[in-house]
Input
Amino acid sequence: MRRRNFLSILLASATLPRFGWADAGGPTYLAAAREPDGGYALFGLSATGEDIFRIPLPDRGHAAAAHPTAPEAVAFARRPGTFALVIDCVSGDVAHRLHAPEGRHFYGHGAFIEGGAVLATSENVIDTAEGRIGLWARDDGYARIGDVASGGIGPHDILRLPGDVLAVANGGIRTHPDRGREKLNLDTMRPNLSYLTVASGIDEVVELDPDLHHASIRHLAAKDGVVAFAMQWQGDLTDPAPLLGLHRRGAGPTLCAAPLAEQLAMKGYAGSVAMCDGQVGITSPRGGYIHLFNDDGTFAESLKRADVCGLAAASPGMTATDGFGGILSVSRSTLTPYRSANRAWDNHLIRVAG
Amino acid sequence: MRLVLAALLALTAAPALAGVPEVVERHILPAFSRFADATETLAETAQADCTAPAVRPAYQTAFDAWMGLSHLQFGPLEQDGRALSIAFWPDKRGMVARTVNRLIAEQDPVVDTPDGFAEVSVAGRGLFALDRVLYDPELSGYGPGDYTCQLVSALSVDLARVARDMRTDWHGFAQTLLTAGADGNTTYLAPREAAQGVYTALVTGLEFTKDQRLGRPLGTFDRPRPAMAEAWRSGRSLKNVELSLIALHELAGALADGPIPQTDAAFDAALETAAELDDPVFAGVGDPTGRLRVEILQQKVRFIQDAVAGEIGTALGLSAGFNSQDGD
Output
């Protein structure tokens, strides 16, 4: 979209947030879960996994996006969902409902830019399979204000980098809501990691070698100028490929593979990625493992935990969640449980800023 | 061990554990014991006479025993890549052949010591390396003084070592499983996690037999892949399906809290179909009639999956992993 329009919308809508995350109890993390009665809820969690708040959700979600300052979470429906809920984490109310524009659906992730004034969402143009990043003005009741190209097919995770650069994991897989999650273009898929700004569009596109075109780039983490991208292998599972890559702007990607037996144990699937002091972690709920790599890309450790998927940076180390309700501390080479909650944690654990 | 188990049972008999104690006592420990015994016999046989005709019967018995536990991929079996070091299959890239051929071509002295051999790539170890060396006519004609004979001996001793270690480890791990949720148990944080882990092994085992053991050779109608059948060289493909189903049936019966008539009937029907198949290595998948028969067997395994989910999963409040079955 045109820079001038974008700025004028921002200026028109700029207000100071009334509440901060402290007013919602100061959670360190957000995570959705299925509860024993079959219902779903969004939880605010402390650094050690204690419940800070619980807000019922109408259905299973995918990821949430946390506003950088205001106690607001955007919970996305699972793909190919067409709605997202903006949840006021102080009152527990649904403050706004976002509906994907006609002919679009969400892919389940979003990120805030412009200091939290604009929400960016990964979207599919259903007829053409073109990936778009939808833009919503928070201070204008999350009104739709435009969109930009994502740089590929099937944009999934979006990450805000310094300077409001967006890193986008274009998974490369074409889907159509009429056919559920069926993958329609496995033979020709070309995933990429794209960097873009709302004002200038695509700035850099990182593709892997053609023989890795089945490695769908799906989830992202960033630290100190390095973006970590986690992948899901659409090739033969007995012919494994790396599931993690590291990228620094302007350079080529570094692929991170584990030794053969460990690599096979991941079942070709990484569900989340996180970075902390000197380490990068990915989770495989299918294999039931967390893999840790050093920041130079070398393999460090394999940690066993069934159905583990959520992973986020802690200080120090990382925190992981699983489908059995476990919340665990990941520290260098050990996995230590904080607690086991009587609920099934969903795919992602989201770190709240500040 | 029985005493220890009885004590543990007294301490831990909680509904959330379902049939886990029975699974451990009646299914898991006997299976690991049989595998340790069978591989020990294999190692002794190979050390006495490592030529192919001498070793084949003990190899077959060891493989039979492996089918009794190949689905128990948690705890000791999943440590240190053990499952792959015993059975590197499926092997789409031909890594078993590549590794075995390299060892033989280089006469790699790594076969001289058990510690050294334990460092060989998992693809060059275990039952599938033996399958190739003992049954591939290009390799199996070796004499008692040949390098290949030493390799067979080293493969057998290595298998026996891994099996022995696992049997030992299971005695400790049984406690971990049976004390799920107890203070200090960092592996299973709640009692239901033990039942969930066992149930996952059951579900995953059925899926593996359906999708890999049957699905691989079936390939597609236009492109059947009989050479992708499991252990076809040693004539085991159908037998492995049957033995895996027998083992999974035993596991299902032990895990369930009550009678499971639908599951029993589904296992029986699948085994009956398998017994009537008369195609030991699925060579018939290339012609329409033979293919249909294997597809029917695959369908029968699918019925077992449905019965298990409905009769055991639902009753225990278990389902396959919340995240592992979702994916996004």
